[in-house]
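A brief tutorial aside. Many learners find it easier to grasp structure tokens once they have seen a single protein encoded end to end. The record that follows does exactly this for UDP-N-acetylenolpyruvoylglucosamine reductase. Read the sequence first, then the structure, and try to relate runs of similar tokens to stretches of the chain.
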Amino acid sequence: MPEYELLSDYPLLAHNTFGFDVRARLALRLTEEAQIAALAHDKRLKDRARLILGGGSNVVLTKDFDGVALLMELRGRHVIDQDGEAVYVEAAGGENWHEFVAWSLSQGFPGLENLALIPGTVGAAPIQNIGAYGLEMGERFERLRAIELSTGETREFDRNACAFGYRDSYFKREGRGRFVIVSVTFRLPKKWTPRAEYADIARVLERGASDNPQAIFNAVVAVRQAKLPDWRVLGNAGSFFKNPVISAAEFDALKAREPELVSYKQPDGQFKLAAGWLIDQCGWKGRSIGAAAVHDRQALVLVNRGGASGAQIIELADAVKRDIHARFGVELEAEPVCL
């Protein structure tokens, strides 16, 4: 069995982007795959709950964790294959997502630039099926390797097995907490097509620059920095709510009542609503409950102004959801996992 040190009464302040000052009864820094496989046979951890943390950018910790926090620190990124259509790039689960996107672009492999500056790790990206500005990670995904915590066995998942949905996957539902994702392989097309249709991105891009993947990367970074708070300065988990998707019939009825409704028609005929607009219309932008607040520039983002607890963030989210439902008849769903 590989050697590793179990850390007692471990502070998680630096392991969640909301900046909640909570602790784990035990913690383990995962720097090699053999450590993860060995967990299934460690009698000291029998029957203990596990909490897998990468960057902690998609979790709301409402209390101390009475179990073992598994801190993902696996590193490595490299080209593993290519064919006539694509380059296949693999990254370890503990790699910083934004740094991986920047690295792949610097190697001459565009395709992920629209997902720049999203906080978190590579291993967390498939769980959430992260997406932004017209691209979802699932479109570039090839496969991943994961270790099942109960057995220590390594399994490979292709796109179908991951069951990607809008900010959703198998690992967020049936597979939640069962696996540690140790590496992800991406398929980056050699025939690159820009995604620069979003108004915010087009506004920042210089004329003709949409054919340059580095320019799109820079534009995405600039837009995100202008709209979203830096979690290192103001604790947050990025967009807190999913954009709700409703049927065409529901949309028609709502549009009749709310002519200014901001929406995006989906390929299947449904409509995605702009959750930020819904929240803003209910007057929540900039409002707070204690030190938990709705950001004053982006209503989709809930922030910790300093000293807020996870419970206060949940209380604020619930209040926002009630008002949205009362006015629009729409249910908002949180993106982060609340523990």
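Self-check: The chain has a mean pLDDT of 94. If you spotted this yourself, you are ready for the next section.
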